[in-house]
Amino acid sequence: RVAMEYSFNGGSSQDPADKRGTGSVTANMLDEGAADLDSKAFHERLERRAIEMNFSVTRDYLRGSMRMLKENRDEAFGLLKLALTSARFDSDPLERVRAQMVSNARRETTNPVSIAGRKFWEQAYGTHPYARAPNGTVESLPVIQAADLKDYAKRVLAKDTLKVAVVGDIDADALGKLLDTAFGALPAKANL
Question: For every residue of 131-147, which 3-state class applies, written as one string?
């Protein structure tokens, strides 16, 4: 097996003030189709080769992880490249992801721990982007469109802020080539 964790600076702190959750929606959509593969075809390729690919957002980072068997690493890194450089942001998966996120946001409005956490961040950071809900709100999520996701990805996914850690059955030469495959086509500099 080979496992990789990576991150790009940015996270939810790069969300537009009126579109809280843009980074989180982007992360949730990166594996929902890319290039000529729609969401179903992309996930079928992942499942057929037992490739685990996940994306998430914190206040400071867009993070990703990938796990695969050694013999599937070429396809895994190729699919990662597509997700990072040619994500489709199609309307059907976007509406499904948005509905899930709105449901979670609605649930958080009645959860005492979530309410206290949100109030802490608001009190501690005032008007700073850290005060915003990283996963968006019931009000902000419905206004986020595919164009916002494309803009976020274009600004945040870049080589200058990329950090990568890889472990498993792989040598440095093979890894170098795979990293070039996955991340080589990204812009040199982020626009944070």
Answer: HCCCCCCCCCHHHCCHH
- Measured over the CA atoms of residue 135, residue 140, residue 141 and residue 144, the dihedral's sign is negative
Q: Are the C-beta atoms of 25 and 102 separated by less than 8 Å? A: no
pTM for this model (two decimals): 0.89
Q: Tokens standing for 10?
A: 């940015």
- Cβ burial 160-171 (10 Å sphere, 16+ → b, else e): ebbeeeeeeebe
Contact call for residues 190 and 64 (beta carbons, < 8 A): no
The per-residue pLDDT for range 35-72, each reduced to its tens digit, is 999 999 999 999 999 999 999 999 999 999 999 999 99
What's the pLDDT score for residue 132? 87
CB distance 67 to 51 below 8 Å = yes
* Run of H or E including 45: helix 39-48
